[in-house]
């Protein structure tokens, strides 16, 4: 057994039993054996699949019927984590998904070093829903014209961590629909799902090829379109108000701009007003704005709290 292992290691490091001779010493043998043991098993992926990672995204993907599921990969665990893994096995079995118990290194390789929490799931990707093809009457507007509806519109959000955090906040705070511009926007990747803590697995996300025509159409339907800005002094031709002053008296769209540039000028000019978050102190130059997902969470809470106070 030991001799067979030595032979495998000699081959792995480019030596043979015939030429290693007295140059082969115990320290080299030990290091080479560790290198061989560290090499993860290559796992072939199903064509067109992606690897979800993390407990919440994988559990929610298993519980929904929005993806085709191929294989569940679990790390052998003990203690409290063992119960979590047992629940995954039950979920996968109920869906007819094969379960593979693998090493941590193999999970690391599957999700390219992301934080997987001992779980990876091979599945088909999720896609944006096409807003133009899927548009339906406005969620009961005809029966309840004064219902407080809120849609979140994202213009060219490119960072998957930001997109995931935005979806998580939108889902938690009760946003009725999220719409993204298809151009220059981050797709719905496993990283987005992990950053959303799995909200992406249960919350439809729409996209449109023509964001400005969409905003014009919603304005014609009686919706209020609110832009967002971090530096009110840079806005021209559109009134700027504090988010604390906003009055929610009709269906509203909150438009969020890209991480670096904010809303484009063309989109700003389609907004009825711009919302700003008042700072709590005088700010030093260079740190005068918030991360886009943090700012959006604050704005949404400020607006959605009116819904909680007044009822639906």
Describe the fold and architecture.
It is a single chain. Strands 5-8-7-6-11-9-12-10 form an eight-stranded parallel beta sheet, sandwiched between helices. Strands 1-4-2-3 form a four-stranded mixed beta sheet. The protein has helices at residues 2-12, 17-20, 26-38, 55-63, 80-95, 104-110, 131-134, 160-173, 190-195, 211-220, 265-268, 292-310; strands at 50-53, 69-75, 99-102, 119-123, 129-130, 150-154, 177-181, 205-208, 224-228, 240-242, 252-256, 273-276. The relative contact order is 0.12. It has twelve helices and twelve strands. Mean pLDDT is 83; it is low at 20-26 and 137-143. Helix 1 (2-12) crosses helix 3 (26-38) and helix 8 runs parallel beside helix 12.
Question: How do you describe this structure in short?
Answer:
Helices cover 38% and strands 17% of the residues. It is of the alpha/beta class and 312 residues long. Helix 8 (160-173) links the parallel strand 6 (150-154) and strand 7.
Secondary structure elements and pairings:
Blueprint: H1 2-12, H2 17-20, H3 26-38, E1 50-53, H4 55-63, E2 69-75, H5 80-95, E3 99-102, H6 104-110, E4 119-123, E5 129-130, H7 131-134, E6 150-154, H8 160-173, E7 177-181, H9 190-195, E8 205-208, H10 211-220, E9 224-228, E10 240-242, E11 252-256, H11 265-268, E12 273-276, H12 292-310
Parallel strand pairs: 2-3, 5-8, 6-7, 6-11, 7-8, 9-11, 9-12, 10-12
Antiparallel strand pairs: 1-4, 2-4
Helix pairs in contact: 1-3, 8-12
């Amino acid at each position: 057994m030991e001799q067979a292992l030595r032979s495998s290691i000699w081959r792995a490091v480019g030596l043979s039993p015939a030429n290693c001779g007295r140059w082969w010493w115990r320290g080299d043998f030990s290091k080479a054996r560790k290198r061989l043991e560290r090499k993860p098993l290559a796992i072939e992926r199903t064509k067109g699949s992606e690897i979800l990672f993390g407990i919440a995204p994988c559990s929610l993907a298993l519980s929904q019927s929005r993806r085709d599921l191929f294989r569940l990969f679990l790390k052998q665990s003990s203690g409290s984590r063992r119960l979590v893994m047992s629940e995954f096995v039950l979920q996968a079995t109920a869906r007819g998904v094969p379960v593979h118990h693998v090493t941590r290194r193999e999970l690391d390789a599957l999700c390219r070093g992301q934080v997987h929490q001992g779980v990876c799931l091979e599945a088909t990707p999720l896609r944006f829903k096409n807003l133009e093809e899927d548009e339906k009457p406005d969620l009961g507007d005809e029966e309840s014209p004064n219902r407080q509806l809120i849609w979140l519109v994202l213009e060219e959000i490119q960072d998957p961590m930001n997109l995931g955090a935005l979806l998580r906040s939108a889902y938690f705070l009760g946003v009725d629909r999220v719409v993204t511009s298809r151009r220059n926007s981050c797709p719905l990747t496993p990283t987005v799902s992990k950053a959303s803590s799995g909200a992406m697995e249960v919350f439809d996300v729409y996209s449109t090829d023509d964001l400005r025509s969409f905003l014009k159409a919603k304005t014609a339907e009686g919706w209020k379109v609110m832009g967002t800005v971090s530096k009110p002094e840079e806005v021209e031709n559109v009134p700027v108000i504090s988010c604390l002053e906003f009055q929610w008296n009709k269906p509203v769209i909150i438009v969020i701009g890209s991480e670096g540039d904010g809303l484009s000028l063309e989109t700003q000019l389609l907004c009825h007003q711009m919302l700003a978050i008042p700072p709590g102190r005088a700010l030093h130059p260079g740190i005068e704005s918030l991360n886009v997902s943090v700012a959006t969470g604050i704005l949404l809470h400020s607006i959605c709290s009116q819904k909680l106070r007044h009822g639906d």
